[in-house]
């Protein structure tokens, strides 16, 4: 489920020198349809920017199948928990199509952010915008799933 407002595209949201610095840390990876990228509660030691394909972000719901919070695609960030201690995933993620992505080592990127506060601020603002969008998407999705039909919520 994608909300009507697109999630910020990571590369487009960063000024060129910062985008180049971030992409200098990238490693190309691919995932087959159905592959789990990470599980809720696991160590958030990397993140991805999708090149092609789609990834569903999901939450565990006791006694039910995972609830898809949002589906992200080309240019979008997969994983935000890498930026905030204790560095544990707050959601899970699964490829819903074959995915090609740029993968980043979270520790290395945090080191770059610490070494250059302007870069750190720029990337932190991008991740913050992604988080705000994801929170809104999660709220809408939860209302879709659990609000009484016809309640106006």
Short description:
By secondary structure, the chain is an alpha+beta fold.
If you average the pLDDT, what whole number results?
88
Poorly predicted runs of 5 or more residues: 1-6
CATH architecture: Sandwich
Distance between the termini: 18 Å
Task: Using the coordinates shown, work out and report the CATH topology.
Answer: Jelly Rolls
- Would you tell me the structural class of the helices and strands? alpha+beta
Strand order of the largest sheet: 1-8-3-6
Quickly count the domains.
Answer: 1
Q: What form results from the Cα inertia axes?
A: globular
Number of contiguous helices? 4
The CATH H-level homologous superfamily: Jelly Rolls
Strand content: 25-35%
- Approximate helicity band: 25-40%
The count of strands amounts to 8
Q: Compute the CA-based radius of gyration.
A: 16 Å
- CATH class, please? Mainly Beta
The helix/strand order is HHEEEEEEEEHH
Tell me the major beta sheet: 4 strands, antiparallel
How are the secondary structure elements laid out?
Layout: H1 10-13, H2 16-23, E1 27-31, E2 36-38, E3 46-52, E4 55-59, E5 67-72, E6 77-78, E7 92-95, E8 99-105, H3 106-115, H4 117-146
Helix pairs in contact: 3-4
